[in-house]
Q: What sequence folds into this?
């Protein structure tokens, strides 16, 4: 079966997030499986995969070339920065800084990797989960910045985490489950054009109420 959720192992999770761009989410599971078959997720083997095989894994669009470069940089970072499975065990700030040396790992994603690996006890959302929870009504929306500028994504992330944490009991597993469920909802229904009429939580969500209809 194709994987649809990011692995809890931080190294393979980094590869999972880099194998295709976020705009091609439907291909992620298949591409990830092909990467595993070709390389066993070993950094030295990823570094040695040629362009033809890389395109068979990542795709042939212009954005696929970006992901191919990103996978190669991931392999280089593994040698230069360290194995992410070791990095997550560092003190929190050091772990956050080290993980952000890998492509595509911005502060929220670094916290998300630490949560999945069991080394962080706060909610932490990837792009899909964050978009969903903000629409539901937690945290600041992207237009809350000053002078008409869009809000910094990490400020938005932290505002959503703060608001949602107020309603959660203790427990890392609960946070991991909540984060992954929100992510899946963001992929299946709460997409760029959200399908609110089909959404199981539409009665608890701010967005349909704000726009005054169920799309
Ligand atoms: S009701 Fe609509 S906006 Fe709210 S979570 Fe569901 S799909 Fe997203």
A:
């Amino acid at each position: 079966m194709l994987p649809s959720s990011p692995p809890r192992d931080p190294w393979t999770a980094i590869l999972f997030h880099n194998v295709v761009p976020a705009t091609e989410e439907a291909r992620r599971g298949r591409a990830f499986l092909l990467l595993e078959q070709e390389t066993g997720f070993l950094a030295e083997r990823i570094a040695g995969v040629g362009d033809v095989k890389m395109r068979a894994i990542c795709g042939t669009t212009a954005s696929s070339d970006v992901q191919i470069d990103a996978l190669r940089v991931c392999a280089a970072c593994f040698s230069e920065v360290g194995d992410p499975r070791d990095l997550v065990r560092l003190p929190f700030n050091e772990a956050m800084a080290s993980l952000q040396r890998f492509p595509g790992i911005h502060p929220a994603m670094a916290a998300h990797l630490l949560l999945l690996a069991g080394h962080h006890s706060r909610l932490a959302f990837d792009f899909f989960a964050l978009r969903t929870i903000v629409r539901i009504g937690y945290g600041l929306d992207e237009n809350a910045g000053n002078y008409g500028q869009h809000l910094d994504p990490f400020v938005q992330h932290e505002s959503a985490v703060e608001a949602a944490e107020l309603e959660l009991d203790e427990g890392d597993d609960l946070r991991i489950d909540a984060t992954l469920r929100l992510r899946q909802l963001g992929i299946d229904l709460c997409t760029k054009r959200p399908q609110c009429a089909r959404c199981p939580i539409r009665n608890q969500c701010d967005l349909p109420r704000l726009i005054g209809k169920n799309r």
